[in-house]
Design a protein that fits this description.
alpha/beta, 7-stranded mixed sheet, 6-stranded mixed sheet, 9 helices, metal-binding, NDM-1-like
């Protein structure tokens, strides 16, 4: 059953696998009285609704903003007060400008601000209006949402949101729950060791009843995140052996060391690309990816 669910959710991972005119099927799931997750095309969106209003975690792609607002309106009418970005990638921040123009205030780590400014320019509506360093807490809708920065994990600007009352955590792309290995964006400050360290720390701050929202794939729990950590550690061990044996990047790729894990891969992140990114991360060598 787990493999079937992961296969069903695989198309949610990123836009590059979809035709521009593809119809996106949205799915809402309630996690607590005030917290929902919205699956669509791109990163999973958390939606908080309550007496204070609405706020989102991530906003997928610009072309989906109106449809996302329609989905949110099923829960509560109105414009989200805040949009929290878990990192700067476009499948999580593409709707920033549209939501900002509608009246939402974007929150993200300082490095997300810097990278979005480099991409969109000073003064762009894509940029956060509130940025933070290590952590901040949003006291809204009767919830204390602790936003914590993990340095050099998926990127250099990753934020994880811990919902205290609901006992839910949104990991962003530190966690890919797709029977696959993650995209380690080494050119944006990411590292495999950083992802493993972040997952280990998240596990220290949740319990067996915590609901875990991954960046991509179905919602799971602490057990699912523990399995992911074990997979990351096994993949790292396999890669270190392959690097020691074969040395060069081309030789390691040719050896296909990760094939023994028998994982799922998407068109945009095939096994060869994962191998290349892990190699650069573990050898601290520059990547052209």
């Amino acid at each position: 059953m787990k493999r079937i669910l992961q296969t069903l959710f695989l198309p949610l991972i990123l836009s590059v696998t979809h035709p521009a005119n593809a119809t996106v099927e949205f799915k809402l799931r309630q996690l607590s009285p005030d917290l929902h997750v919205l699956y669509g095309q791109g990163g999973n969106i958390a939606i908080s609704v309550g007496e204070d209003g609405i706020y989102l975690v991530d906003d997928q792609f610009a072309k989906l903003s109106e449809e996302i607002r329609a989905q949110v309106s099923k829960l509560k009418p109105g414009v989200p007060e805040f949009v929290i970005n878990t990192h700067y990638h476009g499948d999580h921040t593409g709707g920033n400008e549209n939501f900002a123009k509608a009246g939402s205030h974007v929150i993200a780590h300082n490095n997300v601000y810097r990278r979005l400014k480099d991409k969109h320019g000073e003064g762009s509506k894509f940029l956060p209006v509130i940025s933070f360093g290590q952590d901040m807490t949003l006291h809204f809708n009767g919830e204390n949402a602790k936003i914590w920065h993990y340095e050099n994990a998926h990127t250099d600007g990753d934020a994880v949101i811990f919902y205290e009352r609901a006992n839910v955590v949104h990991t962003g792309d530190i966690f890919f729950n797709l029977n696959s290995l993650p995209y380690v964006d080494v050119n944006s400050g990411g590292s495999l060791d950083g992802v493993i360290a972040a997952v280990a720390d998240i596990l220290e701050h949740i319990d067996d009843n915590t609901t875990v929202i991954p960046g991509h794939g179905p919602v799971t729990n602490k057990s699912g995140l523990l399995e992911y950590k074990a997979l990351l550690e096994r993949a790292k061990g396999i890669m270190l052996v392959a690097i020691d044996k074969h040395q060069s990047l081309d030789a390691v790729i040719a050896a296909e060391p990760l094939a023994e894990l028998e994982l799922s891969y998407s068109d945009w992140l095939p096994q060869q690309r994962v191998t290349k990114l892990f190699y650069h991360s573990l050898t601290s060598s520059p990547s052209s990816d």
